[in-house]
Amino acid sequence: MTVDENPYADLLGIKVLELEVGMARVSAVAKPEHTNHLGYAHGGFLYSVADCAFELASNSHGVDAVGLTTSMEFHRSSKVGATIVAIARETHLGKTIATYHIEVTSDNKRIASFTGTVYRKN
Amino acid sequence: MTVDENPYADLLGIKVLELEVGMARVSAVAKPEHTNHLGYAHGGFLYSVADCAFELASNSHGVDAVGLTTSMEFHRSSKVGATIVAIARETHLGKTIATYHIEVTSDNKRIASFTGTVYRKN
Amino acid sequence: MTVDENPYADLLGIKVLELEVGMARVSAVAKPEHTNHLGYAHGGFLYSVADCAFELASNSHGVDAVGLTTSMEFHRSSKVGATIVAIARETHLGKTIATYHIEVTSDNKRIASFTGTVYRKN
Amino acid sequence: MTVDENPYADLLGIKVLELEVGMARVSAVAKPEHTNHLGYAHGGFLYSVADCAFELASNSHGVDAVGLTTSMEFHRSSKVGATIVAIARETHLGKTIATYHIEVTSDNKRIASFTGTVYRKN
Fold it and tell me: Which one of D6, D34, D71 has the shortest CB-CB distance to C36?
């Protein structure tokens, strides 16, 4: 995934650390422009980081995968300067439907959990 | 919510259209930098718009509310130039927990649905 | 939906009150055998009532619909003797994917919310 | 958890296989009365099995834990006679909020995934 391929990931400074079939790891640094009114990394920013890992892992099979549903649980808040890492792993791969679980960590602590299901365009 | 108060909303160009106790309506235009590798508005961008409406509605009672869990269903894709509108309404208001349902539309069509639950710091 | 057609709904005493295309309303009475260790209606029981409304509404178009993902928020607890009513309404109907929102009430108070997405076998 | 303590688990034939602090494993056999109109184990039945594991694991710390939100993804259908096993593991334990992830399997295949968040009454 380069800047040209995913403009939104580029806007947020999301970098791909690792990409395999059914698995992806990305990271981004929480900057001042990614914060909410309380000064913490915004939920939408954390979701976007997790969503990019989900997108990469679910599209890693050479078949277009479109997000259908996601759920996210927020465990801890993150401050400006924190590096956010999201790892997506495949929970289930069916012919037309697949599900991924994404762990979001910072400083090796779990800060959020994300589950996403895609429709695969065969 | 002004630029100074919510930097992340400002980064994405999210505008507050309406804000009442327990309800908020916001909008943003999908620009080229908000797209995914297929050229559609990124799921993380749509989530962020919905999340801002959720944040405003849940914090409208004068009590700090922190997002605990969210779920989102994606119904239709949106192209560059589309105006995305998110309306958050209160489903349940308890002393420490509250839930909001957010409709995300574009051109008066429902493009996504979002449900969020907060912890209220009394 | 009769006893012969849906044994699980029958086991839990779930009755169909109303069924239209894209909409269903069902109810069940919380009995002692539907409670948890605290004496309240079990979350699995409340989910099952909502799930039956979801199942009926999503299968009301004459096309087999299979549940893919659901999310549920629990707002209030219910005691033995309470009548639980669940109303499912169609949020989005696509060719292969559809989403339903289910309100769960008791004594006209919202006690839970449920969102479900199905795969439609065309 | 015995029959006297959790009537709903008893109604569905759910057995506790293992219970530790922050972890629980339960199982149940899908019987004819647990099926839907297609003859497969009902989604509400599978949810109830997962929910019991969630309930046990989240209440294993000696503090009352009440379910706030859950999400569930259904991967594969199960026939009558199948043994359904659900394992709940703690994803995050906070002072007032905790999250659990539950794997649901049958014949060592993942058939569903469940995530649940509780409010802990300290």
Answer: D6
Distances D114 to A12, C37, D35, D87 between C-alpha atoms, Å: 30, 21, 20, 10
pLDDT-based confidence at residue D122 (cuts at 50, 70, 90): confident
pLDDT tens column, D24-79: 999 999 999 999 988 899 999 999 999 999 999 999 999 999 999 999 999 999 99
**Band of the pLDDT at D111, cuts 50, 70, 90?**
very high
- Which of A73, A91, A117 is the closest to D99 by Cβ? A73
Give the per-residue pLDDT at B11. 97
Residue D112 · residue D73 · CB < 8 Å: yes
Give pLDDT, residue C38. 83
Q: Which residues contact B105 (CB under 8 A, 6 or more apart)?
A: B84, B85, B86, B87, B111
DSSP B34: G
Q: How far is B20 from chain D (nearest CA, A)?
A: 25
**Angstrom distance (rounded) from CA C109 to CA C90:** 21
The pLDDT value given to residue B3: 41
CA–CA gap between residue A7 and residue A30 (Å, rounded): 18
- Closest C-alpha to B60, from B29, B18, B114, B9: B18
Q: Which two tokens stand for residue A78?
A: 């993150």
For residue D43, give the 3-state DSSP assignment.
helix
Q: What is the mean pLDDT of chain A?
A: 95
Q: What is the mean pLDDT of chain D?
A: 95
Which tokens go with C12? 């839990």
Chains that touch B (3 or more CB pairs under 8 A): A, C, D
Query: For A36, which DSSP code?
Result: -
Instruction: Let me know the angle formed at the C-alpha of C109 by C103 and C113, rounded to the nearest 5 degrees.
Output: 25
* Interface test mutation site (partner B, options D54, D68, D118, max chain B beta carbons within 10 A): D68
* Pairwise CB contact (< 8 Å): B37 & A70: no
The domain segmentation of chain B, as residue ranges, is 7-120
Q: What is the pLDDT of residue B2?
A: 46
Whether residue A81 lies within 8 A of chain B, CB to CB, comes out as: no
The CA distance from B13 to the nearest CA of chain D, in Å, is 31
Say yes or no for a CB contact (<8 Å) between A69 and C119: no
**Chain B residues inside the 8 Å CB shell of A34:** 7-8, 11
In words, the CATH class of domain D7-120 is alpha beta
Any idea of the CA torsion for D19, D24, D29, D32, to the nearest 10 degrees?
120
The pLDDT-based confidence of D2 (bands split at 50, 70, 90) is very low
D partners (3+ CB pairs within 8 A) are A, B, C
Q: Is the pLDDT of residue C65 over 90?
A: yes
